[in-house]
Design brief:
Elements lengths: L15 H8 L3 H8 L7 H14 L5 H8 L5 E5 L3 H6 L1 H15 L5 E5 L3 H15 L2 E5 L7 H7 L4 E4 L10 E5 L1 H14 L5 E5 L5 H16 L9 E3 L4 H14 L5 E4 L2 H13 L9 E3 L5 H5 L6 E3 L2 H16 L6 E4 L2 E3 L5
Helix pairs in contact: 1-2, 1-3, 6-14, 9-10, 11-12
């Protein structure tokens, strides 16, 4: 049965003509307001925005994209296996923060997971076809060509964390991983610990490299010899933290502290230490990195390095929108903070 527009019929959604009539301006003025407000007086813009609120008009994004050549959406690209997205709480925090920051601009965020070469190839093809206006790239390993391919294709891009390649022109927002690591190791030394181990992140990521470098720098400054038997690497998963501690205890049973390069790995480290009969912090002090929910849920609660994820999300969105608007690439490094809890 055909619905009519009378009583009992389905109400037609408001159109741009309704907005123009309500605001007392031309349809062209409304269109200019919707597409950035260029060549529109402040009073006319105010009248149009008031009319949009009153009529409940919703922008037809598809129609506008045909005019502007933009999709009015942004991609959140995670180049990790799908299971990591659900295990690691940091990714969800970043996704939520970026979603909220973009919502203030009425821009939806599309989640894209690309953990394999085939997935990355398909996603790259989708992005470069113009389905999103820009990309927030999270967890890019060295040797992963996605960032450079997108940059070469002219896609606005902001990476979370410093790029690995020398001379990269990719915009990025990062916490100061090296300085955060230095703060943690100084704290462990201040407790009188001298056999300080480390479970690093993957060494093909900027965070993995910089946190290990900060650990080594502070030990060297303190006159403590670097003992490679006290260093193991992980992949930021809980299981790799557990396995890393098992290797360290086997190679250096006199270890009295350990800096673990993520809170999730530190949870695994605590499990391995309990199984080995080591008390935390009495026998072994444990420090993490991130200040994620994993730090609070750990037993005992983790001393850790806080990454300012709210600021990271906001800055990633700010830099990306500026780049979409025509500005040059930018780099932002944000300070971290030592948070003391019961594990040290």
């Amino acid at each position: 049965m055909t619905m009519n527009n009378g009583a009992g019929g389905r109400r037609k959604p408001p159109t741009i003509h309704d907005v123009a009539r309500e605001a007392g301006v031309s349809r062209g003025t409304v269109s200019r307001v919707l597409n950035g407000g260029h060549y529109v007086s402040p009073s006319a813009a105010e009248a149009v925005n008031a009319a949009i609120r009153k009529t409940g008009y919703v922008v037809n994004r598809h129609a506008r994209s045909l005019i502007t050549g933009r999709s009015d959406s942004v991609g959140f690209l995670l180049t990790e296996p799908q299971e990591r997205f659900f295990e690691d709480p940091n990714f969800n925090v970043l996704l939520s923060g970026c979603t909220q920051a973009l919502a203030a601009h009425d821009i939806p965020l599309l989640l894209m997971l690309a953990g394999t070469k085939d997935e990355r190839r398909r996603i790259t093809r989708y992005i470069t076809a113009g389905h999103v206006d820009g990309v927030l790239l999270v967890s890019s390993h060295s040797g992963d060509p996605v960032a450079e391919q997108l940059r070469e294709a002219g896609v606005p891009l902001v990476q979370c964390g410093k790029p690995m390649g020398p001379g990269s022109k990719v915009s990025y927002v990062a916490a100061d991983d090296r300085d955060g690591a230095r703060d943690m190791v100084r704290h462990l030394l201040s407790l009188g610990r001298r056999r300080i181990g480390m479970v690093s992140g993957p060494l093909d990521t900027p965070g993995g490299v910089d946190r290990l470098a900060g650990y080594k720098e502070v030990l060297t400054e303190a006159g403590v010899e670097i003992d490679e038997r006290l260093i193991a690497s992980g992949d930021y998963s809980r299981a790799s933290g557990e396995a890393g501690i098992e290797r360290l205890l086997e190679r250096a049973p006199d270890m009295d502290a350990v800096f673990v390069a993520s809170d999730l790995m530190a949870q695994g480290a605590l499990t391995a230490l309990r199984r080995a009969g080591r008390r935390v912090p009495e026998d072994v002090s444990v420090g993490g990195f991130d200040d994620s929910v994993a730090a609070i849920e750990a037993t005992p609660a983790l001393t850790t390095i806080r990454q300012p994820y709210d600021r990271i999300s906001n800055e990633m969105v700010r830099v990306l929108l500026a780049q979409i608007g025509g500005e040059d690439p930018a780099a932002v490094i944000l300070p971290t903070e030592l948070v003391k809890r019961d594990s040290t």
